[in-house]
Amino acid sequence: MTQPILKATNLVKRYGRVTALDHCDFELYPGEILAVIGDNGAGKSTLIKALSGAVTPDEGTIELEGKKVSFGTPLEARDAGIETVYQTLALSPALSIVDNMFVGREIRKKGFMGSALKMLDYPAMEEFAREKLSELGLMTIQNINQAVETLSGGQRQGVAVARAAAFGSKVIILDEPTAALGVKESRKVLELIQDVKSRGIPIILISHNMPHVFELADRIHVHRLGKRLCVIDPKTHSMSDAVALMTGAKEPEAA
Ligand SMILES: Nc1ncnc2c1ncn2[C@@H]1O[C@H](COP(=O)(O)OP(=O)(O)OP(=O)(O)O)[C@@H](O)[C@H]1O
């Protein structure tokens, strides 16, 4: 079998007397969409935070492309090629689309103007943003200098996913990408996720929306009580199987 691109073994994370991750294993394979499902409080967010450098696990190991990694901050994970789009979108509403795409990694002008005066190369940034948005079919956004607060929820999510796809060279993590969206907007974001997958970037999708999970996922990681209970194939399991496993109404052997 191919090597996982991202793998975690025996992750433990405790918050006082709460064990949010209880010897949890995880694998993401190249090119796949892996959904992570689980009841409220099962530990999905903590798992994703551990994989993306937002929390440091107390025990366990994480490997990216077969190499052990230990991220002290989300920035370190990002630099290693893991991009996360959080449910509470980390976009700055008052800034433009271009500015949001480049926050923290702006392109400087070449030579002295860039290195000493720290002047930004706006034309280059605009060109890059336009290219990335149009690659993902997001060019219905007319003006990339418009403030993000003037966009619809779906368009905002689109910008956040495009940013992740533009910079996330190895793994993209999407935390509830359709949670706040209407039917039409969700549809666009689902298509966008398929587009990102077709570019060969593997995706971890955390979602409570079973129809969306079953539409997109190649495999489904079922999380219960702080650990991976099982991985199911959406082609051979039903949504009610998944929910029963998630809630403990059913055990994996009987699934
Ligand atoms: N910063 C924290 N401090 C204390 N306890 C925490 C913290 N973060 C998470 N927990 C606890 O860890 C457990 C797992 O939480 P987590 O948010 O990972 O679950 P989840 O599966 O993502 O839930 P949801 O679907 O509701 O978002 C919960 O009992 C939660 O209360």
Automatic annotation (TrEMBL):
<feature type="domain" description="ABC transporter">
    <location>
        <begin position="6"/>
        <end position="250"/>
    </location>
</feature>
<dbReference type="InterPro" id="IPR050107">
    <property type="entry name" value="ABC_carbohydrate_import_ATPase"/>
</dbReference>
<protein>
    <submittedName>
        <fullName>Sugar ABC transporter ATP-binding protein</fullName>
    </submittedName>
</protein>
<dbReference type="GO" id="GO:0016887">
    <property type="term" value="F:ATP hydrolysis activity"/>
</dbReference>
<keyword id="KW-0547">Nucleotide-binding</keyword>
<dbReference type="InterPro" id="IPR003593">
    <property type="entry name" value="AAA+_ATPase"/>
</dbReference>
<dbReference type="InterPro" id="IPR003439">
    <property type="entry name" value="ABC_transporter-like_ATP-bd"/>
</dbReference>
<dbReference type="GO" id="GO:0005524">
    <property type="term" value="F:ATP binding"/>
</dbReference>
<dbReference type="InterPro" id="IPR027417">
    <property type="entry name" value="P-loop_NTPase"/>
</dbReference>
<keyword id="KW-0067">ATP-binding</keyword>
<dbReference type="Pfam" id="PF00005">
    <property type="entry name" value="ABC_tran"/>
</dbReference>
